[in-house]
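Justification of computing resources. Each target in the renewal requires a structure prediction run like the one illustrated here; the chain below, 261 residues long, is used simply to show the kind of job we budget for.
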Amino acid sequence: MAVNRWMDFVWRQGGGLPLPVSPIPLDDDGGYKKRMLAPPFLVERIISIRSESICYDSPGGGPSGTVNVVDAFGVDDDDDDDDDRDGDAEITFTVDNPSIRTTFPAHSHFGSVKFRQVPPGGSDGSDGSDGGVEMVWKVTIRPMNHFQTYLTFFIKAVISTLARNFKVNLSTSTSTDDDNDGDDDDAGNMVGIYPPRGKDIGPIKGTVPLFQLRKDSWVGGVLSAHLSDQRGVEEQTKDMVRPWTWGVDEEKDDIDMEWTS
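Resulting structure tokens:
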């Protein structure tokens, strides 16, 4: 299920962002309804997880009980054949401590991630696609004075990175599951760092990677996009001073973003 994967990969693991540690759970029961990103010690909290049949809400605006997406949707986490039962789903969350100190200078924040089943051919059956799940990520904020430009750039960068990493995670997890060998380090899910020009350096073979990175991480995504970049040297050099373009593969990237004031 896309919701299960989002909760596990993005919320619990950090979504492949370049964080020094994984998100820290702040719940008394060790759950992940509330988490801290450290640094910058930003605290985020799940407000609700909804399906067409069940919603997890509390009168105070926070989640009640344990946020268990498996129970909420009535689907076994290991049963990927039940994806067609997802229907529409939504996760809502907020930032509990927005401030300049936590690098999020806003008065308030509300985020929602919606998943919608798209039938083959798209919504109107005319685009020739195979169908799938559409994710719509919306953020509503009230920025502090003079920080709207910064927050616009910051939020676009973070959400586009998370969305891109999540898409890769879904595709690589599917291919790994199909292998049925329990090997999470499948070559197709990793990108390798090799010696310069692939030459042998003493006992180090040029055809053997020095180390490998997951493609669904920010660093791995940047490296993977660079290795597959067929543009000229001039265009690639320009992007060196435009970090917001790092990791973006324009031919494969179908992430659309829109900002309204």
